Amino acid sequence: MGGRDLFAGVAGVYPDAVANPPDPAVVERGRRARERRLATGEVEIIPAVAADGGDVAMPLREAFEYYGTPRGAVPNYTNGFAVESFEHTAGFGAQEAAARLTVPFQLVHCENALVPPWAREFYAAVTSPKSELWLDSAGQIDFPDDPRLIEPAAALFRDVCRAP
């Protein structure tokens, strides 16, 4: 079997940090948590998800329905998020990287996954060879474990990786 470099986005989230800048208070919270860790060794952790939302890294009900239930449970998963990560992740932007891709790009997404307009915007900005596959899904969390989504996405990736 041949192989080649490929960038694939499966139900990815492609934020635009210029159009949607981060909340300065969230970035500052992350900075303070990092400084506290450096001064005291204490790492401030919040839950990644919770049933009631609350002070969590992913305040989406759908995120809880996967990561907070047996469906997403794996032995090495810890429902925790280092608050200092907010210093860098809150302002993460993917959009500006699209035009810099030099390897083939494959987008797999659905209308019910997170922010389809961002996926379309990212795809449109990619100038390297690209292909897209839009699937039907109830939402974001179906992509890790629904064979109806996994099989067509995997087939698309295999085809591109086998191409000369």
Automatic annotation (TrEMBL):
InterPro entries: AB_hydrolase_fold, Polyketide_trans_af380. Coiled coil: none annotated. Transmembrane segments: none annotated. This is Alpha/beta hydrolase. Signal peptide: none annotated. Gene3D superfamilies: 1.10.10.800, alpha/beta hydrolase.
